[in-house]
From TrEMBL, chain A:
It holds the Pfam family SBP_bac_1. Keywords: Signal, Transport. PANTHER family: ARABINOSE-BINDING PROTEIN-RELATED, OSMOPROTECTIVE COMPOUNDS-BINDING PROTEIN GGTB. SUPFAM superfamilies: Periplasmic binding protein-like II. Residues 1-28 form the signal peptide. It comes from the Bacteria. This is Extracellular solute-binding protein. InterPro entries: Bact_solute-bd_prot1, SBP. Belongs to the bacterial solute-binding protein 1 family.
Length: 433, 299, 296
């Protein structure tokens, strides 16, 4: 009797196992190259966010595919970081096309296909400076970003009796003092846990203003070892950042906030200024705020820093089944008017495609951001967004994580600016290959 | 002859090895041991994900390891976490087990409640506690409501963050200890406790003289498991502090291995860190198991 | 101490368990202290469940308090995501957990039987080598594993992940089962062998049923481990074939948006299946732990 019951149980378990195995069979296996006849099937790695939803990608892919016959695109969803791309290559799972720029490190190893200037010009690309690697093109630069600009709350400025955005660093400090005296936290600088990277924007701003407005090629020289972080000019910028928090100009609760909470805090008026990438314009406009202005972090001499970078995404796997077609499709995808419009609305992209016109329904903060960008461009005053660029002059792989951690020590006063710079020099040397 | 065949025990039947031991052993060798050997091998090279050439460097990576102050800090962090993971859940678990060692549906429910964190993903636990512990999180909000003007930065103060990570790991492990110690307590023959009572032993003395020695094997097992768990901490650090605040204040061995070998692409050096970690865990575990076995003989 | 004597002690201990529970009644002071302690301990979980039913606005304003307007909205959001993050994760996780747990439990039980009953060198070697597996932190072998899986063509597949899990969970199962198996008298099997049963039948009809309490704790621990594992599926499964429920949760969290309600709702949904499993196996589970604990 007992044995029979056991047998029954065992049969049940076996059936469950068999059923589950059968299901496994259905979903297992890497993307099969299906495609009948002349159709080429290519995989396209994207990352879905609340701004760039599944629906957005599906529609955008469909529009590009319409223009390039003979291609079927299979969307795969993953993270858009170089480290993750590296893993995909290491594990033989690399897709044909990467939506977001991951070229640095991989291009040098010959893993990505090169675009020619000719094919890019034909497609309407106008930016040939961003994201180059050893002077060659591995991605398509169509949407520029300014990282970071300083967004500020006009209402809070008015409350503290400040009428204009600061033009020099002395004015900025003066404004901070006024804000603090009025009981307003001047800066929202922070980010904790996996969002610790968000703490970097103050440093990124100060270095852009003090180092790069004087010498835009500073980080190219750093790569060659001609300059060092411990040089007076870099240490000076680091000291400014430390002084801000040591003087109590930062939001005390910000250091453990997630990135999303940080944004909420500034939108909610918890602090007057927020150094952040130009994508913040989209969030501010979405919240329908009209009291947000923007300026470039000023240097002592009164130059304002507008650090820019073009996301040179649409990197093509050199081992793709059909590199030419993959490039052609990528260019079509990158320059599609509607795709770019969505980039503008959802991510605050500053589009650089030839003859592109900004859609009419953009928000006020976006318009201000573009104005600041255009003005800097016209004056020849833009500098590379040193912490975010992916091509020549980019920080070596793994260095950003270390810099982020050390920057927290700088902000909390655990490292002096000189110690901070020395640490960076040491880690930079180790990270250079 | 035939009789003997019939009496033959399963263990001496060749089918026994083939069906019972070989399939598992093959899987284990291919998917557990072999990768370990590969990792060991690459720890003797300077392999790097972002460079084309790789060469053999002997023990260089290991030499670098123990002169690297950042690594020594990571080691220290991990030892502290492992100690927290041994002491806190075991002490709390034992206390709660003694408290809950009573009949009734309410106590049944409470026993189950303590086990809930055990079945949660450590990612979930980390996210929940991050909400509680951040500077303007619930704990500090409550402290402020009670008049504490400047509550501690549980995750932002470099000298506190490590202990916060230790606490949430311990919190998740308490349930296992409670269940285990309850099981141990309930297996203690009542006669022994009664006999001790008759001899005039009070509750404290009864606990020390009867309960504690009988629980000892449970305690040693939990100590070894907690310690190994403490040495492996990764998810909590990744989610809650990302190794910070600041340089390496909560970096653990596992976190450092992933950051070096995968994020920064230093495969060879990362593998040396991984191998060192494995040898440390293995050595301490073997030591602990020896101690455990000796104790069991005493029983 | 012989195996038989050990069993004698154990069974009397277990019989004791029932009477002990009947005996001890709690006084009001103890009940009150226990209730307060339990409430404090579980408060963070309560918070998650509570906030899963609140609107975004309410979470921000009154994070720790129940509000009047509770909503299903967050659950609907998670379940109806256009990319089906939750559902594909659920299907994958159920397959992986069910198949992986069953296979590794059975394999571990069989191997434990071999280790305990055989006196040969192979059994001795296994008993030395297998426990090493418990000590290998997953982070250490991830990279070589990744390449190996690629070369075997198992990368990106649920099947490959299951194979990995079966091999990886084996040491834990073997450790628990051998401890338990040593307490089972050989004579039972000898009697079955005398009746002409082969090793397989002896094992299935005599030994395996006796392992049930230990089996329950092995199943629970392995199932919880597989269900909650994060880093292995993140890397082995890759982006092409969706994710598991835990990796999906990370994606839900890592999005740069402050939709905590949906995150909490996802957490609750992702925990329900494993909670149900635990509740069903709870009784056996405690017994198994008891066996493993008192006998090593």
């Amino acid at each position: 009797m007992r044995t029979r019951r056991r047998t029954k149980q065992f049969v049940l378990a076996a059936t469950v196992a068999a059923w589950a195995l059968a299901l496994t069979g259905c979903t297992a296996g890497v993307a099969e190259p299906s495609g009948s006849g002349d159709e080429v099937s290519l995989t396209f790695l994207v990352s879905e966010t609340p701004n760039l939803t599944a629906q957005y990608w599906d529609d955008a892919i469909a529009r590009a595919s319409e223009k390039v016959p003979g291609v079927t695109i299979k969307k795969v969803v993953g993270e858009n970081t170089p480290a993750y791309a590296q893993q995909l290559f290491a594990s033989g799972q690399a897709p044909d096309i990467f939506a977001t720029g991951i070229a640095n490190g991989l291009a040098q190893k010959g893993m990505l296909a090169e675009y020619t200037r000719d094919e890019m010009e034909k497609a309407g690309v106008t930016d040939f400076t961003s994201g180059t690697i050893n002077g060659k093109f591995y991605g398509v630069a169509v949407g520029a970003q300014a990282i970071p600009l300083v967004y500020y709350n006009k209402d809070l400025f008015t409350k503290a009796g400040i009428s204009d955005a600061p033009k020099t660093y002395a004015e900025l400090l003066d404004d901070c003092a006024k804000l603090k005296a009025a009981g307003i936290t001047p800066f929202e600088i922070g980010g904790g846990g996996k969002d610790t990277w968000a703490t970097n924007f103050a440093l990124a701003s100060a270095v852009a203003a003090d180092v790069l407005t004087v010498d835009p090629g500073w980080f190219l020289k750093r790569a060659k070892g001609e300059v060092k972080f411990s040089d007076r000019v870099f240490v000076g910028a680091a000291k400014k950042v430390q002084d801000l928090t040591q003087n109590g100009y930062g939001d005390k609760a910000a250091m453990t906030r997630s990135y999303a909470d940080l944004e909420q805090a500034f939108l909610g008026g918890k602090a007057a200024m927020y150094p952040m990438g130009s994508w913040f314009a989209a969030a501010a406009d979405k919240a329908k705020l009209t009291n947000i202005g923007v300026f470039g972090w000023p240097s002592d001499a009164g130059k304002s820093a507008v650090p820019t970078v073009s996301g040179s995404g649409m990197n093509v796997n050199a081992k793709s089944k059909n590199v030419e077609l993959a490039k052609k499709w990528s260019l079509a995808f990158a320059t599609d008017k509607q795709n770019r419009d969505l980039g503008v609305i959802t991510d605050g992209d500053i589009v650089t495609v030839k003859d592109y016109e900004i859609p009419g329904n953009v928000g006020a903060v976006y318009k201000e951001t573009v104005k600041a960008y255009d003005a800097a461009l016209a004056a020849g005053a833009t500098v590379p967004a040193w912490a975010n660029i992916t091509g020549d002059g980019a920080l070596p792989p793994g260095f950003s994580d270390l810099m982020t951690a050390a920057n927290v020590d700088l902000l909390t006063g655990k490292k002096t600016p000189a110690q901070f710079a020395q640490y960076l020099d040491q880690k930079y040397a180790a990270a250079q290959k | 002859m035939q009789m003997q065949n019939k009496y033959r025990l399963a263990p001496r039947n060749p089918l026994h090895v083939l069906l019972f031991a070989v399939p598992g052993a093959v899987l284990y060798a291919v998917f557990v041991l072999w990768p370990l050997l590969l990792a060991l091998w690459s720890s003797f090279t300077d392999e790097d994900a972002y460079r084309l050439t790789t060469s053999f460097v002997g023990f260089d990576n290991y030499g670098r390891l123990f002169t690297d102050p950042a690594y020594l800090q990571t080691l220290r962090n991990t030892v502290i976490l492992a100690l927290i993971c041994i002491v806190v859940p075991n002490a709390l678990g034992l206390g709660i087990a003694v408290l809950l060692d009573r009949a009734g549906w309410a106590f049944n429910v409470m026993r189950a409640v303590f086990f809930i964190p055990v079945i949660l993903s450590s990612v979930v636990v980390a996210v929940i506690w991050q909400q509680m512990l951040k500077d303007d999180g619930l704990i500090n909000a409550s402290l402020r409501a009670f008049g504490v003007a400047d509550p501690p930065g549980w995750l932002s103060d470099p000298s506190l963050a490590l202990y916060s990570v230790g606490w949430i790991t311990a919190w998740q492990a308490v349930g296992t200890c409670v269940v285990l110690y309850l099981a141990g307590l309930q297996s203690i023959p009542k006669e022994l406790l009664e006999a001790a009572s008759i001899d005039g032993a009070g509750p404290v003395r009864r606990f020390r003289a009867v309960t504690w020695p009988l629980l000892a094997p449970s305690v040693t097992i939990m100590t070894v498991l907690s310690m190994i768990g403490g040495f492996k901490i990764y998810d909590q650090v990744k989610v809650m502090t990302n190794g910070g605040p600041g340089v390496g204040t909560t970096s653990t061995l596992a976190f450092d291995v992933v950051r070096t070998g995968i994020d920064a692409g230093a495969v060879g050096y990362g593998a040396a860190k991984a191998a060192a970690m494995f040898f440390m865990i293995a050595a301490i575990s073997l030591l602990a198991i020896r101690v455990m076995r000796r104790r069991e003989v005493d029983l | 101490m012989t195996a038989e004597a050990g069993v004698g002690h154990r069974t009397s201990g277990r019989r004791q368990l029932a009477s002990q529970i009947e005996a001890g009644r709690a006084g009001p002071a103890r009940t009150l202290i226990a209730l307060i302690l339990t409430a404090v301990f579980i408060y963070p979980i309560y918070l998650v469940v509570l906030n899963a039913f609140k609107t975004q606005d309410a979470i921000y304003r009154y994070p720790g308090l129940p509000t009047l307007s509770l909503t299903w909205r967050n659950f609907v959001d998670v379940l109806t995501r256009p990319d089906g993050l939750f559902w594909t994760g659920l299907i994958n996780s159920v397959q992986i957990t069910v198949v992986g747990t069953l296979l590794s439990t059975v394999l571990a039980a069989m191997m434990a039987h071999y280790i305990v009953r055989s006196t040969g060198w192979f059994a001795k070697m296994l008993w030395v080598v297998i426990p090493l597996g418990v000590m290998i932190p997953p982070a250490t072998t991830l990279l070589p594993l990744l390449r190996m899986m690629r070369d075997l063509g198992l990368i990106g597949s649920v099947f490959g992940l299951i194979v990995l899990y079966v091999a990886g969970s084996l040491p834990f199962g073997v450790l628990v089962f051998t401890g338990f198996m040593r307490t089972i008298p050989k004579e039972l099997e000898e009697a079955a062998a005398m009746d002409g049963a082969g090793p397989v039948r002896t094992f299935w009809s005599i030994v395996f049923p006796l392992l049930r309490p230990a089996g329950a704790s092995v199943v629970i621990f392995i199932a919880v481990g597989l269900w909650n594992d994060f880093i292995t599926p993140l890397i082995i499964l890759g982006p092409a074939n969706g994710s598991t429920i835990t990796v999906g949760m990370y994606r839900q969290i890592s999005e740069h948006v402050s939709n905590y309600g949906a995150v909490f709702a996802y957490m609750v949904l992702a925990t329900i299946p494993i909670l149900v499993l635990f509740i069903f196996m709870q009784k056996h589970f405690v017994k198994g732990l008891l066996g493993g604990a008192t006998k090593g």
